[in-house]
Design brief:
Blueprint: H1 7-22, E1 32-33, H2 40-55, H3 74-86, H4 95-108, H5 111-122, E2 128-131, E3 147-151, E4 154-162, E5 172-178, E6 189-195, E7 201-206, E8 215-225, E9 230-231, H6 237-254, E10 260-261, H7 263-273, H8 279-311, H9 320-342, H10 345-348, H11 356-370, H12 375-386, H13 396-403
Helix pairs in contact: 1-3, 4-5, 4-6, 6-9, 7-8, 7-9, 8-9, 9-11
Length: 404
């Protein structure tokens, strides 16, 4: 791969940098993705930021022009992402819609759905959420129990979802339901677009260990959805859901981006803290910093490799699982080292201090690790679908006996 800019990419980089500088006062800023405490005021600021970026042609760069996108390449999107990263522009408030819901509607939605939803999603006029996990079906998503029953006036939804990011601010969501209880669990599912303001929808925020309330549990009490809001065919929801999951893994780390506190922030933090350490501790910290930065670069360039494949006509596939695994590992290592470099000051850091970001990131990465599939699920996907290894079907009892 050639990582140098082409003439077109160099021109784009200059124009993006100029746009961000000219509109800096209109943009929200932040240290990294997935660390925002939502808060109504912050949400409004982030929605305005996404609208400004969209109006400047920096959001949805690779999406079809017919629905408000830029119709450009993944390489050009990477240039835009790098410049927004350099300018410390906060991540889009509509990241669930951009990374998961929008691509699903584009691939499986009707023309009417695309025209009604996509442009508003790109501009953050509407925030979206993803309604998949349930109290009894997380990693085993196909075991979900929320049911949709078809009647004359539409589909009647009954059930509960959990760990739904930004549901309390969302206007729409993509909802996976069981429509055929007689079919095998992967074959009796159907996907819908649901209005989060519809009668019967109740959203309850959940307090997380990082102090935020960005996750929610959502209850559906006889919510009616018109059949025109179905995505894909009846009982074919698992195939539709795979589109969402593959794009989610790309969004969370498979595309070469960083999650948590960014590596350049760690480098600046280390430059301030290293002189305060003893020689032995400084040597260990420098070694740890080097490992984090090398792995961060490896994750970024591997993501670019996957983006290049997509630019040639590919779609997000099981390879994105490796990028997501690595991105989460880098995020955890970054936060852990940042916290350790604080030393005793870590105990006294407050939520209003810049030092608090390390603890926030450290407490956030376990939740991010579950998004798009737990680590164990992703390792199985890599082993079976990328490395073509035989599935491990050994019963747990046999494994225990063999270990003895």
């Amino acid at each position: 791969m050639d990582f140098d800019d082409t003439p077109d990419q160099a021109h784009l980089r200059v124009s993006v940098r100029k746009f961000l500088a000219e509109h800096d006062s209109e943009l929200a800023h932040g240290d990294g993705a997935y660390l925002e405490e939502p808060g109504t005021d912050r949400v409004d600021e982030l929605r305005h930021t996404q609208a400004v970026l969209f109006d400047g042609g920096l959001i949805g760069l690779t999406w079809p022009q017919a629905y408000g996108g830029g119709g450009r390449t993944n390489a050009q999107q990477a240039v835009v992402n790098e410049e927004m990263h350099r300018a410390r522009v906060a991540g889009p408030i509509g990241h669930v819609g951009l990374g998961m819901c929008g691509p699903t509607v584009l691939r499986h939605g009707s023309e009417d759905q695309k025209e009604r939803y996509i442009r508003r999603l790109l501009r953050a006029d509407d925030i979206w959420c993803q309604l998949f996990s349930e109290p009894g079906s997380g990693s085993d998503l196909a075991a979900l129990r929320t049911k949709a029953v078809r009647r004359d006036d539409g589909w009647h939804i009954q059930g509960q979802k959990v760990w739904t990011t930004l549901a309390q601010y969302s206007r729409y969501g993509i909802l996976l339901c069981r429509t055929n209880p007689e079919a095998t669990k992967h074959r009796g599912l159907t996907m819908f677009v649901v209005d989060m303001h519809a009668p019967g929808v109740t959203v309850r925020p959940l307090r997380q260990m990082n102090g935020h309330q960005s996750f929610n549990e959502v209850f559906f009490d006889d919510v009616v959805i018109d059949d025109s809001e179905r995505l894909g065919d009846v009982d074919d929801g698992w195939r539709v859901a795979l589109t969402t999951l593959m794009n989610e893994r790309m969004a969370v780390g498979g595309g070469g981006g960083e999650i948590g506190v960014r590596s350049d922030a760690l480098t600046a933090h280390a430059a301030q803290r290293l002189p305060q350490l003893s020689d032995d501790r400084r040597t260990l910290a420098v070694e740890a910093l080097g490992k984090v930065l090398v792995e961060s670069l490896a994750a970024r360039y591997t993501g670019y490799r996957l983006q290049t494949s997509m630019e040639k006509g590919g779609r997000p596939g099981p390879e994105a699982s490796a990028g997501k695994l690595t991105a989460v590992r880098v995020a955890h290592a970054t936060a852990d080292l940042g916290q350790r470099l604080l030393g005793d000051d870590a105990v006294f850091a407050r939520s209003s201090d810049g030092d608090w970001r390390w603890a926030t990131s450290q407490a956030s990465t376990p939740g991010i690790a579950l998004a798009g599939g737990a680590d164990e699920i992703l390792r199985n996907i890599i082993g079976e679908r990328v490395l073509r290894l035989a599935p491990d079907r050994t019963p747990p009892q046999t494994k225990q006996a063999e270990s003895r």
